[in-house]
Amino acid sequence: KRYALQGSRWRVKNLTYKIAKYPSRLNRAEVDAELAKAFSVWSDYTDLTFTQKRTGQVHIEIRFEKGEHGDGDPFDGPGGTLAHAYFPVYGGDAHFDDAEMWSINSRRGTNLFQVAAHEFGHSLGLSHSDVRSALMAPFYRGYDPAFQLDQDDVQGIQALYGRKTQTDIGGGGASVPSVPRATTQQPSAEDPALCADPNIDTIFNSADGATFIFKGEHYWRLTEDGVAAGYPRLISRAWPGLPGNIDAAFTYKNGKTYFFKGSKYWRYNGQKMDGEYPKEISEGFTGIPDNLDAALVWSGNGKIYFYKGSKFWRFDPAQRPPVKGTYPKPLSNWEGIPDNIDAALQYTNGYTYFFKGGSYWRFNDRTFSVDTDNPAFPRSTAYWWLGC
Amino acid sequence: APAFGETDKAMVNDDAYFQMYLAQYGYLSPSVRNPSSGHIMDESSWKRAIMEFQSFAGLNTTGELDEETTKVMSLPRCGVRDKVGFGETRA
Fold it and tell me: ipTM beyond 0.85?
């Protein structure tokens, strides 16, 4: 069971689109936003960017039409066929049946965002998948307020366009784009509550390169320049069985993500619990204390570091015991990093970041101290990471 | 009236509808879709087409247009074919 590639794809990654004919029963601005969100489903996992244009030549033209509309594939009125799209080799355009009752964030009618995200999968080169839970399955399965791409969809689109190589939100790393970023690479949305109070519980990368922030019962996915549109969402919906108010999290090189809270920890494979959890931290991470502040896999040596109060521990799964020597050690060894941090992360650009209150620090692995840069650290988490 | 978004039930009980459906989505020769051309088809092609659809949709591959199969065929869906070329096996 799996995704299917039609056989063609775009040779460029910065694609443009135009809504040449809008649906007759929806507000145009809302349609713009929903279709941008539908494109971001795919740009979240690849380096594809999608820019809307009002006129002129574009890669993907979008039309809402009724019945016969000039391509020999007539629509059939309400129900039945909802939309169709052409693979890149055939032009990539997407047509939607304007006889449908298109809806936005509603159980009534047919959800425009979900159908559009599916059709744009075709416009990018994906055929139908026989994985029932995949977005690229051919059947419309009703409005899903907690919509998530299935792993099968992610594997399909990354088979065509590769994984996403995120640039540094914090202004570091060699991959910072030298030219101004494209205007609408993917819809980011400022989250007023998070901007007003940018303290976070934890931050981590998933195995497929997405970056998530946890706070209380909710989570946000980060884009290149802020938080993704359509967030926050409930942690319990995306990681079934995981509670809120998580202390620490990291993804290890085995692709599993570990979450810590109080004296317990959980292990997930993607967003599926990977066995019977929670377990006691003392059981799976001997030598590591409860009620942690933060954890990360350090870019300097690939070992796992745990932080609590003014101390830190190094955990090496390949060693017996995994915590050896004179740990805990004073956190002040990480020159310039304060005690009682909130979160720590090895970002996908290879840099290590520490977060406390509304501030963050970028760590220089070579000098083993906080990086020097202009503006200096600490910097505002809200501005540099949350797009406030 | 059928619940919004479902193909009208009366439409689904017509054999020609199933032939058109299977042809439209790549399980039968496209020529079946041409209502003006009479189309005789041998039983094994018809059965195989139904089984391929059932397999793709995750249903029991009975080769018969049973209740479960016709129900899935009545679901609103994308107009792109499931099989990229008639008769081709999926990659």
Answer: no
